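Researcher: We plan to redesign the surface later, but first we want a full-length starting point. Tokens attached.
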């Protein structure tokens, strides 16, 4: 009776089939024993055949049709020679939406420089135990430690607070600190009067200050909805909280609340320059330009426009920003007489720019003589992959353009635009700009029309 259960335990060893042999792993699934030779794209050849204008028109005319009301204008150029390959009302001024940011990118890179960094400083205050958080144009501050490998949050307020406490300790400061904030770098209205109240309320933009957390967002991961209406005070409050934490171990306390710094009047005797207690620096202007273009960040665009004006010695204001963009384009040789600029982000409906002007700007970035503009190339969204084009070029009519079309998008209720560049099937670099105005709001066919046109260019062996 005891042997029977034991037999049931032993029996499977005799009656079960032997374990299967381990299958051989196919060669293509095995780890390589050596790395392949590095591969890369060959440089474009100036001898690659240029498309025939008639053939390009035959490709594009069938696609650039509005879905309902409105009309499209467009211009295509050979990037190397500037030859116009397609022109449908390309010189007509139109509302460009966020394609305006391409102009701002050029102005910032030319006036400020792609390698420049904005500084956020803490200065000794006018009275004992006062510190002044001073904005220098970085609106991508993070509230934690500096993140050197990021653009957003590259400079962190926790790092700035720790450095401030170290400097105060070295100076022998004790007692309670008061935080002031100096946001005097920007002048004029914080909101552009050309912006619709509804756009401001929806969080498309916010009042402009020379320092902000997360491009004036409460959370960098939430890019819609309400925004801080006083980003300078919001940033100063976050700095105060970090200063309180960092100062606790050093025996320093921090008064609640933040006050705005008021500069001495012109009649007051000139004081010595205040000591810089601590400083953090932003990501480069080139990196910020790329982020602006990839995400179509209105707030960042407006700030970069103001900083371009300041770099030229002009007021860092709304009018200064539009003036800086106009001046930099004119200096680049792009006619601006018919251009109307109400802002530098493209949110204003009063902007008027032609497809020809955008194509010339893209041409200057891709192949112009000012190589500093090449810093904007990484900012162009890639069709089907990155930025504001990441969810486009996914259906049967546009998928051939995925990974090939690189362009800045623009969208308002009755406006859609796309300006960028492609390398066609013959290896020729082409720049283009397509702009639709007076369109039926929300009509899906309008976006597809532009995407199909750009896809046709990328596939073009138009000879």
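Model: Full-length starting sequence:
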């Amino acid at each position: 009776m005891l042997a029977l259960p034991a037999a049931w335990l032993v029996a499977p060893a005799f009656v079960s089939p032997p374990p299967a042999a381990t299958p051989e792993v196919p060669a293509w699934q095995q780890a390589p024993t050596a790395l392949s030779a590095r591969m890369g794209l060959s440089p474009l050849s100036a001898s690659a055949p240029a498309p025939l204008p008639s053939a390009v028109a035959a490709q594009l005319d069938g696609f650039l049709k509005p879905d309902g009301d409105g009309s499209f204008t467009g211009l295509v150029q050979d990037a190397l020679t500037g030859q116009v390959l397609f022109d449908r009302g390309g010189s007509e001024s139109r509302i460009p939406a966020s394609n305006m940011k391409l102009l701002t990118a050029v102005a910032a890179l030319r006036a400020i420089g792609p390698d420049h960094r904005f500084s956020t400083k803490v200065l000794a205050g006018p009275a004992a135990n006062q510190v002044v958080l001073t904005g220098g144009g970085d609106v991508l501050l993070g509230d934690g430690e500096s993140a050197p490998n990021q653009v957003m949050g590259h400079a962190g307020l926790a790092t700035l607070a720790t450095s401030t406490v170290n400097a105060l300790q070295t100076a022998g400061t004790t007692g309670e600190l008061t935080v002031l904030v100096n946001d005097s770098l920007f002048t004029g209205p914080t909101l552009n009067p050309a912006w619709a109240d509804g756009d401001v309320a929806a969080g498309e933009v916010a009042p402009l200050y020379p320092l902000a957390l997360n491009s004036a967002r409460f959370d960098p991961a939430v890019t819609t909805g309400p925004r801080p209406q006083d980003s300078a005070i919001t940033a100063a409050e976050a700095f105060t909280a970090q200063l309180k934490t960092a100062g606790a171990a050093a025996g320093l306390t921090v008064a609640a609340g933040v006050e705005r710094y008021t500069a001495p009047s012109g009649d007051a005797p000139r004081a010595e320059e205040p000591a810089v207690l601590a400083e953090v620096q932003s990501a480069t202007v080139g990196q910020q330009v790329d982020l602006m273009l990839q995400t179509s960040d209105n707030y960042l665009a407006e700030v970069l426009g103001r900083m371009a004006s300041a770099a030229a010695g002009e007021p860092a204001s709304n009018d200064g920003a539009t003036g800086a963009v106009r001046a930099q384009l004119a200096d680049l040789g792009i006619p601006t007489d018919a251009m109307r600029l109400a802002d530098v982000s493209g949110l204003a409906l009063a902007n008027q720019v032609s497809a020809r002007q955008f194509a010339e700007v893209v041409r200057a970035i891709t192949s112009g003589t000012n190589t500093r503009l090449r810093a904007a190339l990484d900012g162009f969204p890639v069709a089907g992959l990155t930025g504001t084009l990441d969810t486009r070029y996914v259906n049967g009519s546009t998928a051939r353009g995925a990974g090939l079309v690189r362009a800045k998008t623009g969208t308002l209720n009755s406006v859609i635009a796309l300006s960028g560049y492609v390398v066609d099937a013959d290896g020729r670099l082409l720049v283009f700009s397509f702009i639709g105005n007076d369109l039926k709001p929300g009509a899906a066919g309008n976006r597809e029309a532009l995407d199909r046109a750009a896809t046709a260019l990328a596939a073009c062996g138009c000879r």
